[in-house]
Amino acid sequence: MPRPVLDEAHIHPAIRTRLAENRQAIVREVMAAIAASDIVVVGMAMNPFPRKARKLLDHAKLPHRYLQYGSYLSRWRDRNALKMWTGWPTFPMIFVKGVLIGGANDLQQLIGSGELKAMLQPD
């Protein structure tokens, strides 16, 4: 089931460009990292869950790219843009081969089940 997103017909034409361009630099930065790396972890300082995800990947000897965007009080608008883009409400956001797999606990389950290794196999 797709998540609801306000359709363009319900956005006044005068603000469509502002909406389309709002904080898109950070979204493009994450998209570029996802295109360039098999595993990308998007996180923030002082949050233990991005650190947990990185430790899980290090322990599994899986190379990954880490992008950190501020802490609880800084860069929250940038992080909010990422949340709006993905629909994922928390950090980290972990992408495997371009697919959002969730957060640290979701990563742990995929590692434990062996599904992560299967996802990383060449097509």
Brief summary:
The protein has 123 residues and is of the alpha+beta class. 47% of the residues lie in helices and 14% in strands.
Low confidence ranges: none
The CATH topology, please?
Answer: Glutaredoxin
Quote the beta fraction. 5-15%
Enumerate how many helices there are, as a single number: 6
Top-tier CATH class: Alpha Beta
Percent helix, as a range, is 40-55%
Question: Can you tell me the number of structural domains?
Answer: 1
Query: CATH superfamily, please?
Result: Glutaredoxin
Family: Belongs to the glutaredoxin family.
Organism: Variovorax ginsengisoli
Domain Glutaredoxin: 47-101
Protein name: Glutaredoxin domain-containing protein
Main traits of this protein?
alpha+beta; 123 residues; Glutaredoxin
Report on this model:
By secondary structure, this protein is an alpha+beta fold. The protein has one domain (9-120): Glutaredoxin (3-Layer(aba) Sandwich). The chain is 47% helix and 14% strand. It has 6 helices and 4 strands, in the order ααβαβαββαα. It has a 4-stranded mixed beta sheet, sandwiched between helices. A hairpin with a 2-residue loop joins strand 3 (93-96) and strand 4. Helix 3 runs parallel beside helix 5 (104-113). The mean pLDDT is 96. It comes from Variovorax ginsengisoli. Keywords: Disulfide bond, Electron transport, Redox-active center, Transport. Belongs to the glutaredoxin family. This is Glutaredoxin domain-containing protein. It holds the Pfam family Glutaredoxin.
Topology:
Layout: H1 16-21, H2 24-36, E1 39-43, H3 48-59, E2 65-68, H4 76-86, E3 93-96, E4 99-102, H5 104-113, H6 115-120
Parallel strand pairs: 1-2
Antiparallel strand pairs: 1-3, 3-4
Helix pairs in contact: 3-5
Family: Belongs to the glutaredoxin family.
Domain Glutaredoxin: 47-101
Keywords: Disulfide bond, Electron transport, Redox-active center, Transport
